[in-house]
Amino acid sequence: MEFARPLLLLLVPLAGVVLWARLKRGGDQAAFRHPRLELLGQQSTGIRARLAGALPVLSGLGLVLLIIAAAGPRVAHRSEQIEGEGIDIILALDISGSMRSLDFHPLDRLESAKEVIRGFINGRPNDRIGLVVFAARSFTQCPLTLDHSVLKGFLDEIQVGLIDDGTAIGLGLATAVARLKHSNSPSKTVILLTDGVNNVMTLEPETAAKLAQTLGVRVYTVAIGREGMVPYPVDDPVFGRRTRQVETRIDLKLLKKIADLTGGTMFQATDPEALQEIFRTIDGLETARYETTISTWYRERMAWFALPALLFFLLEGFLSATWLRRVP
Question: What is the distance between the alpha carbons of residues 20 and 324, in angstroms, rounded to a whole number?
Fold first, then answer.
């Protein structure tokens, strides 16, 4: 137990002085004049009279408890200083239609990426991680957070078709970088995963990369899949879902330029195992020491003293107005 305002406890002796003064004043015996006092005989003080003289004790106790309550009694759970590793990371994930390609058997490119990202998140409990998705447009699926269970919940909701189809690499990167603009982390990182070429001219990827460079954000670019003919699911109104070969292109030169400009690295994953290895490599590259203090929190105990104080005041008032009432 400790007190938020311990200096107020110095008023407790003053409450004792007030109680002593009230008891002394209330102890005077009532008197009246009579010519033949011997006719009254020997009189003794009754129980009600004695209790009435002690009534100030109730308010005195109430005053003491009220002072203690005002001093802010509380139980403290102390903070501690810890050291560890932690950085701020934004994952920028392409969810364009080509991410449904089935060259990452048995899953498609998007589901394979989500599975690897989930493992990456589990391995970095001290990092704040956020999630941006992009296709023809981009938006923040989850801001930077240490609550990784919430982050993985948002990750599970991602699917192709949430945004109009297209591949706005520049816009996706710019959105991710913007989420790190006010970060105070010693290391700010974007991991951009895509399987296509920038075909939405809203914002040039080079411009977004220069913005990242200015803000000290390192960008790792990950090309998912291989170029050329790959299996792709097609929904046929007659024969149902079937697979056919479609041609895909990945702008590896652009992804390398973005990574080089920001001090990152470009990777290419052509299968799930390679994608896992890439994230293990990034996991080893992105570490930073930090020192932080876990904040203290309190359980307030003011009510434990304030409520009894109120009861003492009410009890004195009730008794002095009823059973222990003094007649003038």
Answer: 20
pLDDT 10s digits, 127-166: 899 999 999 999 999 999 989 999 999 999 999 989 999 9
Tell whether 138 and 278 lie within a shared domain: yes
User: Which is nearest to 293 in space by CA: 19, 109, 81, 54?
Assistant: 81
For the chain, the domain total comes to 2
CB contact at 8 A, 297 and 77: yes
- Tell me: do 94 and 176 sit in the same domain: yes
| Domain extent for 187 | 82-292
Q: Answer whether 0.85 is exceeded by the pTM.
A: no
Omega prior to 106 cis, within 30 of 0: yes
Assigned domain for 326 exists: no
Q: What is the pLDDT of residues 168-219, one digit of tens each?
A: 999 999 999 999 998 888 889 999 999 989 999 889 999 999 999 999 999 9
Is 328 within the bounds of a domain?
no
CA angle 205, 271, 114 (to 5 degrees): 65
